[in-house]
Specification:
The complex is a heterodimer of chains A (571) and B (110).
Chain A: E1 2-3, E2 14-18, H1 25-37, E3 43-47, H2 54-58, E4 67-68, E5 75-79, H3 82-94, H4 103-112, H5 116-131, H6 134-139, E6 142-146, H7 150-169, H8 183-197, E7 203-209, H9 213-228, E8 234-241, H10 250-264, H11 268-271, E9 275-279, H12 288-294, E10 313-314, H13 315-324, E11 329-333, H14 340-353, E12 358-362, H15 371-376, E13 380-383, H16 386-403, H17 408-418, H18 422-437, E14 443-447, H19 451-470, H20 477-487, E15 492-498, H21 502-517, E16 525-530, H22 539-559, E17 563-567
Parallel strand pairs in A: 1-9, 2-6, 2-7, 3-5, 3-6, 7-8, 8-9, 10-17, 11-14, 11-15, 12-13, 12-14, 15-16, 16-17
Antiparallel strand pairs in A: 4-5
Helix pairs in contact in A: 1-12, 3-5, 5-7, 5-8, 7-8, 7-9, 16-17, 16-18, 18-19, 18-20, 19-20
Chain B: E1 4-8, H1 24-38, E2 44-47, H2 52-57, H3 59-68, E3 75-78, E4 81-85, H4 91-98
Parallel strand pairs in B: 1-2
Antiparallel strand pairs in B: 1-3, 3-4
The chains are: A alpha/beta (571), B alpha+beta (110).
C-alpha cells in the first residue's frame, strides 16, 4: 500500500473524513488541511470531533463560526459541538414557555426533546449549513469535515433521505419529525446537502481506518452504507501502519504481522477504492509542527529510556471485587473497538471459574465471542440481534392489532408509526429488559453496543420509566423492574472500557457523565490493550507506550484508582 | 357539528408505540380518530412537544394546566368547554359528539 501523498490525489471541493472514534480522523483531516495550505490553497476545516484538541494544536480559541489560524495563514477552522447545538435547540423551543406553563409541563417537554433525534437533527442542521453555503464555496478551495464517529455520521447523512420519504408518506403528525419546528422550510437545504454529498465531482469521502480487523470492517460497513446513499467517490486511508519491526522484539513482530494480516484480509468492498497508508508516528500530534510532519517525515524522535509500567490493578482484581460484592448485572460499556466483547467474555469466564452461574449476552453485531470456549466452560450465551428484535417487536404490535380486529386500513396507520426511528430503540430496549430479568437466577454479563446506542438505551430506560408510571398501559415485569435494578449499586456494575489514547478516554469520560446523570453506578474502569505493560524494545512502540501513561493516569483519576489495566495482546 | 379538540402531553408518537409496551388506550384513540378522519370529521389533536404555543394561547387549557399540571393531560375540549380531564374521551362520547356511530368499529380493549 502506497504512503499517503495528498499532492497525488484528485481532491474535490468537499472532503469528508469518516471512521470509528480513535482512528485519527481529526489528525489526518488536520494534516491534510495544513498540507494543502502549504500548497497555497485556501482551506476551511470543520471539526465535529468532541475529543478534538484542535484548540491546543493551533494555540487558538475556536468557535462554531470560523477562526482564521494565525500560525497557518489560509486556514480557517470551525469547531462544532452537536450536543451543545441540541441543548441550544431544546432551550430555544422551551424558553418562550417558561413561566407560562407549569413546571411539570416544562419538564415533560424537556424530556421529549432529550431523545436521540434531537442531537442528530441539531448536528445535521449545522452540517448542512456549511455544505450549502455559496459564499464559503467560493471563498475556499477545499472544505474539509472531520465528522463525528461513523455511526453518527451515517445517521446524520441518512436522515434527510429517510425524512423526505417520511414527510411525503406521512399521513398524520409523524413522530419524531414534529420536533424540528420549521422542518419543511429546511427541507430544501437538506436536499441540497444530500445532493452535494452524492455528487462525485464535488465530494470525496475519505474512509479512515487502522490496520486492524475490526476498524477495517467498520470502514467497509460505512463505505457500503454510504454507497447505498449514492456517495460513491471514496478512498481509504489506513493510519498507524508500523513501518519497522525489530525481529528480536516479539511485540513489534506480532503487531506487524497482525497489521499485515488485517490489510491482506481487508473486506472486498474496500478493495474497489484507492488506498493509502500513514505510518505509525512516534510523536504526539500536539502542535502544528508535528501535524506538518505527519504526512511527510518518517524519522524517529528518540525519547527517554523505556521501562514497562508496574503496579496498579488488573482484571483479576476487578473480577474478584464483582464476585465478593455479589453483583448480579454487569455491563461492559465503551465505544466500538475498545474490546467490550472480549472483556465481557473474560469477566464472565473469571466469575464462572470462581463458581458463579453466569449468562453472557452480546449485542455486538461484529460478534467476537468465541462461543465454543465459553459454552464449554458452562456459561450460557445469548445474543441481541437488532434487526431480529425489531421484527419481533413489529410482529408483536401487529398481532395485538389483529387480536383487536383492526381493519386493514387502520393497520396502515399502525405501520406508519412502526416506521418511526424510535421503534428500533424500543425493540432493543425490550430485548435488553428480558435478559436482565434473568439475573434473578444468574449473573448477567452484557457487552453493550457502542456508546451512542448504549446511552439511547439508558435514556430510553429513564423516560420509559416515567412513562410507565404515568400511563396505565400494560407493563411487562421485565421492563418495569429494569431501571430500579440498573440503579441499584448493590446489584449492578457498569465497567467502562477504554484504550490508553485521547479519543477513547474522552469518549469514556462522557459516557461516565451520562451514566451518572442517568443515576447508574460505575466503579470500575478497564484500560485495554496497554502497550506500556509490555516489554517491547521497538522504539516506535516504546514511544507509543510512553504516550499511554498520561491517559492511564487520567483514567485512574476518573475512576478513583479503580482501574484494571489489561496488557496489549495479540488476538 | 361540535368542535372537538384533544390536548396531549408531550409524546413521541400518537399511537404510543414508543412506550415500553403498547398502551391500548392510545391505540384506541388513534384508531377512532383516524376512522373519524376517513369519514371526513377532523378532531384536532395537539402534542405539547410540537405545539406548545397552543397550550399558552388557549386560555381555557392554560388555566386548566396551571391548576392541574402535566398530570391533567390529556384534556378534551368540546365547543371550547372542558369535557374530559386526565384521560381520553370514550368511543361512545365521540359517537355522541360527532353524530357518527362508531360502534361498528371493533371494540379495542384489553
Amino acid at each position: 500500500m502506497e504512503t499517503l501523498d495528498i499532492t497525488k490525489i484528485a481532491l474535490t471541493k468537499y472532503l469528508f473524513f469518516t471512521g470509528k472514534g480513535g482512528v485519527g480522523k481529526t489528525s489526518i483531516a488536520c494534516a491534510t488541511a495544513v498540507g494543502l495550505v502549504d500548497r497555497d490553497k485556501r482551506i476551511l476545516l470543520i471539526s465535529t470531533d468532541p475529543a478534538s484538541n484542535l484548540q491546543d494544536v493551533f494555540e487558538q480559541e475556536l468557535n462554531g463560526h470560523g477562526t482564521d489560524i494565525s500560525g497557518v495563514p489560509g486556514l480557517t477552522v470551525v469547531n462544532l459541538d452537536p450536543e451543545q447545538a441540541a441543548a441550544e435547540y431544546r432551550e430555544s423551543v422551551i424558553a418562550p414557555y417558561r413561566g407560562k406553563l407549569p413546571e411539570s409541563v416544562i419538564r415533560n417537554m424537556e424530556e421529549q426533546l432529550s431523545g436521540s433525534c434531537t442531537v442528530e437533527i441539531a448536528a445535521f442542521n449545522q452540517f448542512s449549513d456549511f455544505i450549502t453555503d455559496r459564499e464559503k464555496q467560493e471563498r475556499y478551495d477545499h472544505i474539509l469535515f472531520d465528522t463525528a464517529p461513523t455511526g453518527h455520521t451515517l445517521r446524520m447523512l441518512q436522515l434527510p433521505s429517510a425524512w423526505s420519504t417520511f414527510i411525503n408518506e406521512s399521513t398524520h403528525g409523524a413522530s419524531c419529525l414534529g420536533q424540528l419546528s420549521g422542518l419543511e422550510e429546511r427541507k430544501g437545504v437538506y436536499q441540497q446537502a444530500v445532493k452535494t454529498l452524492a455528487d462525485p465531482g464535488t465530494t470525496l469521502l475519505v474512509l479512515v481506518s487502522r490496520p486492524d480487523k475490526s476498524p477495517l470492517q467498520e470502514a467497509a460497513r460505512s463505505s457500503r452504507e454510504l454507497q447505498l446513499l449514492g456517495i460513491e467517490n471514496q478512498f481509504l486511508i489506513v493510519n498507524g501502519v508500523l513501518q519497522q519491526a525489530d525481529e528480536r522484539d516479539d511485540i513489534s513482530c506480532q503487531l506487524r504481522n497482525r497489521q499485515q494480516e488485517a490489510l491482506q484480509g481487508m473486506p472486498e468492498t474496500l478493495k474497489d477504492f484507492p488506498a493509502y497508508s500513514v505510518p505509525l508516528r512516534s510523536y504526539n500530534l500536539s502542535n502544528v509542527a508535528a501535524i506538518r510532519r505527519m504526512l511527510s517525515e518518517d524519522d524517529l524522535l528518540f525519547g527517554v529510556p523505556y521501562k514497562p509500567l508496574e503496579g496498579g490493578k488488573r482484571l483479576d482484581d476487578l473480577v474478584h471485587d464483582l464476585y465478593t460484592s455479589s453483583k448480579r448485572v454487569i455491563f461492559t460499556m465503551g465505544k466500538g473497538g475498545v474490546g467490550k466483547t472480549t472483556l465481557a467474555t473474560r469477566i464472565a469466564m473469571g466469575l464462572n471459574s470462581l463458581g458463579a452461574k453466569v449468562h453472557l449476552t452480546t449485542t455486538d453485531p461484529a460478534n467476537h465471542l468465541n462461543y465454543d470456549i465459553v459454552t464449554r466452560e458452562g456459561i450460557e450465551v445469548s445474543k441481541i440481534d437488532e434487526s431480529e428484535v425489531l421484527e419481533a417487536y413489529k410482529n408483536e404490535v401487529r398481532d395485538k392489532a389483529r387480536e383487536n380486529h383492526i381493519t386493514e386500513s387502520d393497520m396502515e396507520y399502525i405501520e406508519e408509526d412502526l416506521r418511526s426511528p424510535c421503534t428500533q430503540e424500543i425493540a432493543v430496549f425490550k430485548a435488553f429488559a428480558d435478559i436482565v430479568e434473568k439475573a434473578e437466577t444468574e449473573i448477567v454479563v452484557i457487552d453493550t453496543a457502542p456508546t451512542g446506542h448504549t446511552l439511547l438505551l439508558l435514556d430510553a430506560t429513564e423516560s420509559y420509566h416515567h412513562e410507565v408510571e404515568r400511563t396505565r398501559g400494560e407493563i411487562s415485569g421485565a421492563v418495569a423492574k429494569l431501571l430500579p435494578r440498573l440503579r441499584n449499586p448493590d446489584e449492578t456494575e457498569v465497567v467502562i472500557v477504554t484504550l490508553p489514547e485521547a479519543t477513547p478516554v474522552f469518549e469514556a469520560e462522557r459516557l461516565q457523565q451520562d451514566l451518572h446523570r442517568a443515576g447508574i453506578h460505575n466503579k470500575w474502569w478497564v484500560v485495554n490493550s496497554c502497550l506500556s505493560l509490555t516489554r517491547t524494545t521497538n522504539p516506535f512502540l516504546q514511544a507509543k507506550a510512553a504516550s499511554e501513561l498520561g491517559w492511564i493516569g487520567k483514567v485512574n483519576e476518573l475512576s478513583g484508582n479503580n482501574t484494571a489495566l489489561v496488557e496489549w495482546q495479540n488476538l | 357539528m361540535k368542535t372537538i379538540e384533544i390536548f396531549d402531553p408531550a409524546m413521541c408518537c400518537p399511537t404510543g408505540l414508543c412506550g415500553p409496551n403498547i398502551n391500548p388506550e392510545l391505540f384506541r384513540i388513534a384508531v377512532v380518530l383516524e376512522t373519524l378522519k376517513r369519514k371526513g370529521i377532523l378532531v384536532a389533536r395537539h402534542n405539547l412537544r410540537d405545539e406548545p404555543q397552543l397550550y399558552v394561547s388557549n386560555k381555557i387549557v392554560n388555566d386548566y394546566l396551571m391548576e392541574h399540571g402535566v398530570d391533567g393531560l390529556p384534556v378534551t375540549l368540546v365547543d371550547n368547554k372542558i369535557e374530559v380531564m386526565g384521560s381520553y374521551p370514550t368511543t361512545d362520547q365521540l359517537s355522541e359528539w360527532t353524530g357518527i356511530n362508531l360502534n361498528d368499529i371493533p371494540e379495542i380493549n384489553n
